[in-house]
Write a structure and sequence with these properties.
- This protein has helices at about 1-35, 40-45, 50-70, 75-80, 105-110, 140-160, 175-180, 185-195, 205-220, 230-240, 260-270, 380-390, 420-435; strands at about 85, 90, 125-130, 135-140, 170-175, 195-200, 225-230, 250-255, 275-280, 285-290, 295-300, 305-310, 310-315, 320-325, 335-345, 360, 370, 375-380, 395-405, 410-415, 440-445, 460.
- It has about 475 residues and is an alpha/beta fold.
- Among the domains are: about 1-35; about 370-460, GMP Synthetase, Chain A, domain 3 (2-Layer Sandwich).
- The radius of gyration is 23 Å and the shape is globular.
- The N and C termini lie far apart (about 60 Å).
């Protein structure tokens, strides 16, 4: 009996030591990188009611508009026309008169959107194809990143009641580096260990890999599982098909894609756990997260979110365009940015007591997965990352990848510049690596990509569902 108790005590001490070491290394990495965001999180914690939230928003909107006026050429000229800054003072009553910022404007005014003082802000480049299929380049900075990380902590710790930084996590995500190179670097391995995180590659979801993923989850026993909504859905479909059992984590969150009711129902059924939706973008970071009552609360301390219908603010229950002002990216401000998504305006308050604004539903993200003959599902994110990020195909203005059948893929392209043959060949090789060596790839160069009825482009479109 004493021996058994002694073993349990030793195991407890070992676990405590490992957790302490992980936390120590994680905090050390944050300190030396200048990415410690605790003071930002502490400021968020002070927002306990609507009045304090309004004060916060006005303070940071005022600061952002004033900074943009004096430091960003594009906004200086625009604000002069509107009269939002007078005698060096900001008149926020004129804020809604600011024309929306579109991806077309960002590309056209790229240099004039950059702040004159960006060099003192530890800035970095970022890029995304966006939901319209148009690769968009922009700049962000370390201050923005700290607010983004503080927002992530708020979502998990304050809303979902889980310490995301410390708990064991499995992340079902797209990793091009692992897909094409076979492994990640030493630095990334150390960071993942410190964060107690295992990544499973959602670009490699064959039946064999899914069997392996199930074993990993059951062995690792994570407290948190998060990933692409479609990839989680596909994983659960395969678990059901083979009749496997899967470990039930404390929390499951879906990211990057629209979480449909069908997806939610299956994922919750298989994992035997309520799941939570989240909404974000490369341009603006974390935008909204779901509370315990199912409301999507916008993170108003990170982004000021407007739902616009017919050039006015949408009423409760109305669907409109999502327009976002990123409050903390001063290197390249996005003010009233039309992100390309649609959402339904929610009620003024949620019964959960959280003072953050509410969206009833995110409706605009439509990303179609591709299906292989063997049943493997390839997420649309694979093609988005491949063309826009991995291969850096800068000669492409817009694109759409269409799966016409199991062995034929058509790529519609609006050219920006002369074709880079080496990049074009790289795209083909990597698509064949995933879709199969016999897959025929046809390029069609067009003047415009057809839009959906809602006025959006789709990155991908598959014609094969139901043919298996």
């Amino acid at each position: 009996m004493r021996l058994l108790v002694g073993k349990k005590i030793k195991k407890f001490i070992d676990i405590w030591k490992e957790k302490s070491m992980r936390k120590l290394i994680r905090n050390f990495l944050l300190k030396i990188s200048g990415k410690d965001f605790q003071e930002y999180y502490d400021e968020i914690e002070l927002i306990t009611n609507k009045e304090k939230l309004l004060f916060f928003r006005q303070k940071y909107l005022d600061g952002l508009v004033q900074h943009a006026y004096f430091n960003v050429p594009y906004y200086h000229d625009l604000f002069d026309k509107i009269g939002i800054v007078k005698n060096n003072l900001v008149d926020l009553s004129q804020f809604e008169r600011i024309p929306v910022l579109t991806k077309e404007i960002i590309k056209k005014e790229q240099d004039r959107l950059v702040s004159k003082d960006h060099t003192c802000r530890r800035w970095y480049h970022n890029s995304t194809g966006g939901s319209t299929g148009e690769p968009t380049k922009f700049m962000q900075d370390e201050d923005y990143k700290k607010w983004r990380n503080a927002t992530n902590k708020y979502f998990y710790q304050d809303m979902l009641k889980i310490n995301e930084a410390d708990v064991k996590k499995v992340v079902l995500w797209g990793s091009e580096k692992d897909l094409f190179e076979g492994s990640i670097g030493f630095k990334a391995k150390v960071i993942n260990w410190a964060k107690n995180t295992l990544f499973l590659n959602s670009f490699k979801m064959s039946k064999e890999n899914i069997d392996h993923y199930i074993k990993i989850i059951n062995s690792f026993r994570p407290d948190l599982i998060r990933g692409y909504a479609g990839s989680l859905y596909h994983l659960c479909g395969e678990i059901e098909r083979i009749g496997a059992t899967i470990y039930s984590p404390k929390v499951i969150t879906a990211e990057a894609e629209t979480l449909t009711d069908e997806m939610r129902e299956k994922i919750e059924k298989v994992f035997k756990r309520k799941m939570y939706n989240s909404y974000g973008s490369r341009e603006c970071g974390y935008i909204a997260g779901e509370c315990s009552l199912g409301s999507m609360h916008t993170f108003a301390f990170a982004n000021y979110v407007e739902i616009i219908k017919n050039d006015r603010k949408a009423k409760e229950g109305e669907e409109g365009k999502v327009v976002i002002t990123s409050l903390h990216n001063y290197s390249m401000p996005f003010i009233r940015y039309e992100i390309g998504d649609m959402a339904v305006q929610g009620a003024d308050a949620c019964e959960c007591g959280n003072p953050l604004p509410v969206l009833k539903k995110i409706t605009g993200r439509i990303m179609e997965h591709f299906l292989k003959k063997d049943g493997t599902v390839v997420p649309s994110e694979f093609f988005i990352h491949l063309v826009g990020v991995v291969c850096k195909a800068e000669f492409i203005e817009k694109f759409q990848v269409i799966q016409e059948n199991f062995d034929r893929i058509k790529i519609l392209v609006v050219l920006r510049d002369k074709i880079d043959v080496s990049r074009k060949d790289e795209i083909e090789d990597k698509i064949k690596f995933v879709m199969g060596k016999d897959c025929k790839i046809v390029w069609e160069f067009v003047k415009e990509i057809p839009k959906t009825k809602s006025g959006k482009y789709l990155y991908t479109k598959s014609m094969v569902w139901g043919q298996e």
